[in-house]
Amino acid sequence: MTAVYQGVDGAYSQLVLGHFLRERGIEMPTAGLPSFREMATAVAGARADVGVMPIENAIVGTVREGYDLLAEFDLVPVAEIQWRTDHRLLGVRGSELRDVREVLGHPLVLAECGTFLAGLDHARAIPCEDTGVAAREVARGGNPAIAALASPVAATIYDLIELAAHCSDDPRTYSRFLIVRPRHTGAANPVLALPKAARRKTSMIFSVEERTGSLAGALSILAQRNINGDKLESKPYLGHGTERVFYVDFDGDVDDANVADAIVALQSTCKTLTVLGSYDAHIGEPIGRNDNPPKALVELVREIAQPVAAIAPIGDSPFPRVSRSSNGSGTTLQIGGVRVGDGEFTIVAGPCSVESREQILSTAHAVAARGAMMLRGGAFKPRTSPYAFQGLGWEGVSLLAEAGRATGLPTVSEVMTIDQVERMAAQIDVLQIGARNMQNFDLLKAVGRCGRPVLLKRGLSATIDELLAAAEYILSEGNPNLILCERGIRTYEQATRNTLDLSAVPVLRERSHLPVFVDPSHGVGVRRWVRPLCRAAKAVGAHGLLIEVHPNPPEAKSDKEQALTFDDFGVIVRDLERIETWSHAQVTV
Ligand code: PEP
Ligand code: MN
Description:
Blueprint: E1 3-6, H1 12-23, E2 30-33, H2 36-44, E3 50-57, E4 61-62, H3 64-72, E5 76-84, E6 88-91, E7 102-105, H4 107-112, H5 114-119, E8 124-127, H6 131-141, E9 146-150, H7 152-158, E10 161-164, E11 174-181, E12 200-207, H8 214-224, E13 229-236, E14 244-251, H9 257-269, E15 272-280, H10 295-304, E16 333-335, E17 338-340, E18 346-350, H11 357-369, E19 374-376, H12 394-407, E20 411-414, H13 421-427, E21 430-433, H14 441-448, E22 454-457, H15 464-476, E23 482-486, H16 504-511, E24 516-518, H17 520-524, H18 527-539, E25 544-548, H19 566-577, H20 584-588
Parallel strand pairs: 1-2, 1-3, 7-8, 7-9, 18-19, 18-25, 19-20, 20-21, 21-22, 22-23, 23-24, 24-25
Antiparallel strand pairs: 3-4, 3-11, 5-11, 6-9, 6-10, 12-14, 12-15, 13-14, 16-17
Helix pairs in contact: 1-10, 7-10, 8-9, 11-12, 14-15, 18-19
The structure holds phosphoenolpyruvate and manganese (II) ion (MN).
């Protein structure tokens, strides 16, 4: 079987997992997956034997996603590893600190290096999936103005130079990781045979009644039994008034009599209690002070490098993961503050192409004020003629991201090539695969390996089955966050730009659990027909719309015939409020 981690070669999770396997004498192929959720899914579904999850950082605090995924997927912790996170600023050969304008790093790492980054006032911090991706992107881009915060091991692997050493706010900083296994796992899983360490720890999440002394009461249950609390952190329990949820770690194993007794007592005191499990505590100093020299760790990465595709497929349908039978209740995506899926109707609006700062900012503010929930804008444009406007490229991406931040709207933009994927994902919330790339299978695999949601447009001459098969490529690489989009197909009809196949909407909703959007702008290609097709799309059951809007449509650098004015757009949004949408259940009766 396989051991999985989040990230690419050189990510801290990979180092931690490699260390664990080597130290415990376990030989097993490893695979890097695009997100912690994907990793948790693979372990929970017993498609992997072992995974690794960060749960706490000495500077930043609890990694709540880690604890929450352990609880949500009912993963069993096996061992804790404390790993020194000794971040360096890495650049390409020849670059210098004063030239750096962008610093890529995992959000946690950017937070750990807050003081250092504040001192680099000429550089912008850009979050990305993990330190391995940050270092790899810097190496691939070859741009001396872009640097990464990553480990010295990543520097060696990607042949980068150190522009600054020890960048974290405190050189003693480290992260805590938990090695996890599936709750239900085959007897051959080698972690089952591991002897328990001398020191064990237990983690739990609980909530208490909102009254004076209730937290103290819960904690005294541990104190009375001589159980040493090791960590306590709280967060608001959203949707439950002012109640809070507490994350607690303490010494001992659930099999110890006093711990078992404490848990019984806590069960009757706490409103909710999830015991995540007991595991081998880390003993001694954090591992991985990896500066001097990083050779052993570099060897470790080389030894386990290159993910193997050992995550087993499911079922024998041509699109098992996309098919409704794999998720009867329908997929819901959370994109920033926006939910997409059943019960929602999501309007995405913006220009065909990002043309200038002023154009995208004014459009973003205008569509936000009129009810758009996400902002679209192409930076890399697939144009029929090589002489037509090709988009502003990375400048357009940065402008779109800026407009998204200015309005709070999540952003959507098209990726045309594999090498754009990760850099785009670092700045843009939803990666669009355009109609012309629907069967660019390598590109589909690349977005499937990235953690960002994807909007997949139906190809100009693709059947519904071909669209679903293309979607399967993305899901099968581990990315479950996908929206399908009907945008018109080629028929013999010439009166409209394409033939908007609205019948695809109920068919897709019946056959797949994925949200379905409609793009009437490209579907019909004529401004005045966009409105009736928006109405029809909502009525036929679309989960959302993708609409082109421009401050001055006749001047648009691409697709000017179909772009709406701000006012047209406002009228359509108000109009749509009166249209009822279909639910999947209605569609199938
Ligand atoms: C676009 O959304 O601007 C676009 C180019 O779309 P499509 O791929 O559907 O033509
Ligand atoms: Mn367009």
